[in-house]
Amino acid sequence: MNKGIAVWLLMGAFLVAGCEADTTGSNPPEQSESPSRQVTIEPKQETNPTLHWLGSSEGEQVKLYDNREAKEDSHHIFTLEINGNTKDFDWYYLGDMGTDPQVHYTDLTGDGKEEAVVIIQTGRGTGLNNYDIHVVNADDFSEIRVQSYEDIVANYIESHVKKNGDGTLAIAVKAQGQAYNFDYDFDPAPDYEQDELGFGGVTIYRLENQKIKLNLPGSVGISPTYVCDFNVTYTYDEAKNEFIADQIEVEPVENGKA
Fold first, then answer.
1. Which pTM value belongs to this model?
2. Which backbone phi and psi does 61 adopt, to 5 degrees?
3. 211 CB neighbour count, 10 Å cutoff
């Protein structure tokens, strides 16, 4: 064989081998991704950067978002998503109080259909702990009113505070016609004139056995000092389309702690 031809054949073999090596290196075999690294669908704020996810119900039928761009004074725009549909709500909110909103999806009206329930902390401080509750119809996004603590106090509760000569307080309470009388073992504000209990420093809502519960302590003094608990259980009034107080239990508090 001619020596020149042999050299060209050898160089051609090297070039073919190099091209095959480059082709193999640039296209590695595809590998299936491990389950721990599977891509998951992010909450709604990934498609709308103005929304910040705050919480979901246990089955994620209900999701709550904070609308970062729409806020005014002490009211705030929240976006509520129920089964893929959304609506904005202008709810009272002073910012992050350290407790995440509670989001539920449960039947509170007894009609066999679930409602969206959102409980938001609205105040926190020394002697203060406040929450608001919102119940929303899942079909039309209408909000079902929950009787306020002010209405409950005005319509169902009577109270009297009297200073005893021994430095204690005599507390007389009537709730839904039931009378309660007890002495509190010291007067936390001897120079403060008060003839009835104060309310509103603590308003804590929760759900229990598909019922709305409210812990509403009564207080004395400016500080305030809590002397008894009013535990309210709500019921749904279909005629009014409203949750109203059904049962009120009164229990004295020891050492002024609610």
1. 0.77
2. -70, -30
3. 16
